[in-house]
Write a structure and sequence with these properties.
The protein is mainly beta. The protein is built from 2 helices and 48 strands. A 7-stranded antiparallel β-sheet has the order 39-40-41-42-43-46-47, with no helix packed on it. Strands 29, 30, 32, 33, 34 and 36 form a 6-stranded antiparallel β-sheet that branches. A hairpin with a 2-residue loop joins β18 (about 250-260) and β19. The longest helix is centred in the first third of the chain and has 4 residues, at about 175-180. The model is unreliable at about 1-25 and about 495 (pLDDT under 50).
Length: about 600
């Protein structure tokens, strides 16, 4: 999946040398990190895993606002106040390290980001009292001293097993894993000045207790970390290198020490765990450009790479970024360097290249119009609702094979110019935000030039969950988006078939209210009658709970994949838990599946 922002950026390249204190600084004026100057903006984008597949229902935070990703991994946050220097998006999802993406927000405008999430891998388990070490296949290592671990929430000393999760990120690797690197390639050095980083290796480390609680290094203690150096960068790696930790208060990497080269690893001390980066810092200047086609249409959300001239992609000196909806790329690049900008396809093959040089002042390349040939596609069409009227508030979603775009519908029409791989088959679905209806997904083969998808329909399937239950002939209807309803497939450890349950929970639009209805039923994640329920919880019962002495059948008519829907019904007389009163009860539901 290839979508997101203002160019997050991009390049690690060192082009300055040490000067003695008597020489005049030859470079751009140093820039202090300023988080006090803020702008109001909007930001949207996609969250994906290492394979480019969407991560559904991940929690997304920016400023004082939060949301969740939908079934395409898409999210949107409107009218949020963020530092102009470094706007930050934070993403939390089970089984993954926390994802971060930093961008340069534009006042009153929308930015796009693409955040890759890195799965956690347990490298080892040690005893907190004795300490120990954990290693990765690539040579990464974490060494914990004895009695050096506390519970992150509150700082209480921790005694027990410590689960060490470690992932090494190769700065010379492919774009999929690099999308999981926090930030945008910038850091704050020991003097608080902004630098662009040339990375020689990055590690993500997290500690957890037996109960899953997050752990940290105790104050006054340090752990030892070994960060592997990729073979392609080993000969150029210096004997010592600054060590940087990602700081989510700054939205930037922050210099926190020095690491020493020992063979093919950098060894350093870590007073806390986060993402750690062995990198050199270089002077930077601000960069902007606008990517358009021959007709001056902006190319939205296309991958862009900037690297030093003569340096291949994925050799530690470059990163991918993405244009926004208006084709703009904005960020920071190394000062005083000979560089090449490459517009990429979702397959990460170059479609167009342009050389340029940076100086010690900010640079604007203006509109870049290149011959990108068969890689440029335009998608057009119209969309009507269930009343056969033009959709006025909705979107067309394209997905699969790295071509993820959310195209707004304007007065019943839509249009997008972008870059794709040759003859790419993608799925397309039209959604009406007003009626919360969507049409059936349609597979289209995109070819170079204009692709008229014709008349699409945003009708046929509801995008909202709903639940209705009746107690003694009194019916309560719960519908989204006014209320929140979620379905969760629960598989406790050990993973035995008898222990599999699905939980349905409804929440009021008022966060201070208790759930209106909650129940669980057993069985596999499949349709049919092999499901049973024994109790339901609701404040409408005098005792807050009703139960069946013998489990009753739940008829599941639909059990979708994550992001799909769980639909079903059940009914029977039940007993109130508090006073043993007999009640008639029935329930029907169509609920979005969250995991």
């Amino acid at each position: 999946m290839k979508n997101s922002i203002t160019l997050c950026i991009l390049v690690f390249f060192i082009c300055s040398c040490r000067k003695d204190s008597q020489e005049k600084h030859a470079g751009p004026d140093p820039v202090k990190v300023d988080l006090t100057s803020k702008v109001s903006c909007s930001v949207s984008g996609y969250v994906s895993d290492e394979n480019g597949d969407p991560i559904i229902f991940a929690q997304v935070f920016s400023g004082d606002k939060q949301t969740v990703t939908d079934k395409y991994g898409f999210f949107s946050i409107e009218n949020v106040s963020l530092p102009a220097t470094a706007g930050l998006i934070k993403v939390v999802s089970n089984r993954y390290f926390i994802g971060y993406r930093t961008f340069s927000p534009q006042k009153g405008k929308g930015s796009f980001v693409h955040i890759g999430m890195i799965p956690k891998k347990e490298a080892g388990v040690v005893d907190a009292a004795t300490g120990g070490e954990a290693t990765t296949l690539e040579g990464g290592k974490v060494v914990l001293p004895a009695n050096a671990v506390v519970v992150a929430a509150g700082g209480a000393p921790y005694a027990g097993k410590v689960h060490i999760y470690v992932r090494w990120i190769d700065p010379a690797g492919g774009s999929g894993l690099q999308l999981g690197v926090p930030g945008d390639g910038r850091g704050a050095d020991n003097s608080g000045f902004l630098k662009t980083l040339k990375s020689y290796g990055i590690m993500a480390v997290e500690l957890a207790g037996d109960g899953g609680q997050l752990l940290q290094i105790a104050p006054g203690k340090t752990a030892t970390i070994n960060i592997p150096i990729p073979s392609s960068l080993s000969s150029a790696a210096p004997a010592t290198i600054p060590l940087w930790a990602f700081n989510d208060s700054l939205g930037l990497w922050r210099q926190e020490g020095v690491a020493t080269k020992n063979g093919n690893v950098f060894t350093g001390a870590s007073p806390h765990f986060s993402f750690w980066n062995g990198a050199e810092g270089a002077d930077l200047v601000n960069f902007k450009a606008r990517i358009v086609d021959a007709a001056a249409h902006p190319l939205a959300n296309v991958p862009v790479s900037i690297t030093p001239v003569g340096i291949p992609l994925n050799t530690g000196y470059g990163r991918f970024g993405f244009s926004d909806a208006d084709g703009n790329v904005i960020g920071a690049i190394p000062a005083n360097s000979s560089l090449v900008l490459q517009v990429m396809t979702p397959c990460t093959t170059p479609a167009y290249a342009q050389s340029f040089s940076s100086t010690f002042t900010d640079i604007d390349l203006g509109q870049i119009t290149g011959n990108m040939g068969q890689n440029i596609v335009t998608i057009t069409g119209t969309v009507t609702n269930c009343d056969h009227q033009p959709v006025s508030n909705g979107y067309v979603q394209t997905y699969d094979h790295g071509f993820y775009h959310r195209i707004p519908i304007v007065n019943g029409s839509f249009s997008l110019s972008g870059i794709t791989c040759t003859n790419l088959a993608v799925n397309v679905v039209a959604v009406d935000n007003t009626t919360h209806q969507q049409g059936e997904p349609k597979t289209v083969m995109l070819t170079a030039g204009n692709n008229d998808l014709g008349a699409l329909t945003a009708c046929g399937s509801s995008t909202m969950g709903s639940l209705s239950y009746t107690i003694d002939n009194v019916t309560t209807n719960i519908t989204e988006p006014a209320d929140t309803i979620g379905g969760y497939f629960l598989v406790p450890i050990p993973d035995a078939p008898a222990s599999k349950w699905t939980q349905i929970i409804t929440l009021s639009g008022n966060v201070d209210h208790n759930p209106q209805l909650t129940f669980q039923f057993d069985g596999e994640s499949a349709a049919g009658e092999g499901h049973h329920v024994t109790e339901v919880f609701s404040p409408k019962f005098p005792g807050g709970r009703g139960y069946w002495p013998v489990p009753i059948t739940v008829n599941i008519t639909e059990y979708g994949e994550i992001g799909g829907f769980i639909s079903g019904s059940f009914s029977n007389q039940l007993i109130d838990f508090a006073n043993n009163g007999i009640h008639t009860f029935s329930c029907t539901f169509r609920i979005r599946r969250y995991n």
